[in-house]
Write a structure and sequence with these properties.
two-stranded antiparallel sheet, 4 helices
Length: 93
Amino acid sequence: MVSLTVIIVYAMRLYSYLLFASVLVTWFPDIQKSTIGRLLYRITEPYFGIFRRFIPSVRLGGGYMDFSPVVALIVYDLFVQRGVIYLLGKVLY
C-alpha cells in the first residue's frame, strides 16, 4: 500500500514539472495559445501570480524580462517542497 507521504511527494514533484513546463511554454507563442498551453497557465498561474505581484519586470532593450517565474521555481524547490517533506517526516514518523 502506498503511503500518504509518497502520494504527496509525487504530487508536489509533478507540480514542479508543470511549473517548469509552463516556463518553457512561454518561449513558444504557438504552444502557449494551444489547449495544453492554456491548461498549464490555469494550473500554474495561481502560484506564479503571487510572485508577479511583488517582483516587477525588468526593462531589457526594447522589451521586458519577467524574472518572477525563476524566483518562484527556486522558492518552490528550496522551501515549499522541502518544507512540506520535512513537516511530513516530523508529523508522521
